[in-house]
Write a structure and sequence with these properties.
This protein has helices at 34-47, 67-83, 102-112, 135-145, 162-171, 186-198, 211-225, 248-255, 260-274, 276-279, 282-286, 290-296; strands at 11-17, 52-57, 90-93, 118-121, 148-152, 177-180, 202-205, 230-231. It is an alpha/beta fold. The structure holds zinc ion (ZN). Zinc ion (ZN) binds next to β1.
Length: 297
């Protein structure tokens, strides 16, 4: 972390627990025990100066047991947070669009029994388009329970075409959505910035392998729409993608002419605002943050 941004809190919006080995033919990752996995993840975060992260399941989990499998995954993410709430204060569950109305019960359980903060979807790994009819009862339930929807709009999947998310955001103005994987290509970057101008209730995660080279196109939108409409992630989406080099996006944000307040919003402020659990900590984080002091002592 550069001296200029040393005091800014960095939070990562996009970390999956688990891998994609059962979904992607070329995926390789080491099999790690739970403790070792968490230790590696926290070490990678520390290396990049990341104070905390939002965690969600990997959506390519074994679904052979139907909704019981989904329950196990949601139990697992709650347990993961419970082991280290300082680094992982925000945990999201998931539900399967293919389970139709039964997923509404699981959303309710995720909120009331597991105290999860939101629900995430990666539709291309869940065999569905973003805007299928079942999403409406889910989103109504999220609104009722004050949960935050996270939706992947990967540029390489038409199942996840971002216009479908925009449609849902229009239908549910009471919800604030977080869009993941939006900036994975030049064409889609310009497409989603067009939507961003017209859809105030989507926060766009800036993470992605190419975003630093696209940042010059995104920066004017950050200035005109507000930094609170964008958030940061560090390409630690999967532990297999962890690397020692500093995330190029951090450098792009520092080199930009964005104000300190704008950078603070990008790096953690816009995420904090979404979650009541964290809103009350904001003042403390801004005044220096005890977490950092402990980590570096
Ligand atoms: Zn993801």
């Amino acid at each position: 972390v550069s001296a200029a941004d040393a005091a800014l809190e960095i939070a990562d919006a996009h970390q999956h627990i688990g891998g994609l080995g059962s979904a992607l033919g070329s995926w390789r990752e080491p099999a790690l025990g739970a403790d070792e996995e968490r230790a590696q993840r926290v070490a990678a975060m520390r290396g990049h100066g990341i104070r905390w992260a939002v965690i969600q399941p990997a959506h390519a989990y074994d679904k052979a047991d139907g909704i019981a499998a989904t329950r196990r995954v949601n139990d697992g993410i709650a347990a993961y947070r419970a082991r280290d709430p300082e680094h992982f204060p925000i945990a999201l569950g998931t539900v399967e669009p293919s389970h139709g109305e039964r997923s509404v019960e699981e959303i309710e359980r995720a909120a009331r029994e597991l105290d999860l903060d939101g629900i995430s979807w990666h539709h291309r790994l869940q065999g569905s388009f973003i805007d299928i009819p079942a999403m409406r009862p889910y989103l109504r339930k999220l609104a009722e329970l004050s949960l935050v929807p996270f939706v992947h709009v990967n540029a390489e999947s038409r199942l996840e075409a971002p216009w479908q998310l925009q449609k849902l955001a229009y239908e549910f103005p009471e919800l604030s959505f977080v869009a993941l994987d939006a900036f994975y290509s030049y064409e889609q970057t310009n497409e989603v910035l067009f939507y961003a101008e017209r859809t105030p209730n989507i926060v766009w995660d800036l993470g992605g392998p190419y975003v630093a080279s696209l940042f010059a196109f995104i920066e004017p939108a950050i200035r005109s729409l507000g930094a609170e409409r964008f958030c940061f992630s560090a390409n630690l989406s999967y532990l297999a993608s962890a690397h020692e080099e500093r995330p190029a996006l951090l450098g792009a944000i520092e080199r930009s002419g964005l104000s300190r307040e704008q950078r603070e919003n990008l790096l953690s402020g816009s995420l904090r605002r979404l979650f009541p659990r964290l809103a009350k900590q904001t003042a403390e984080a801004r005044s220096g943050g005890r977490g950092d002091a402990r980590e570096h002592s």
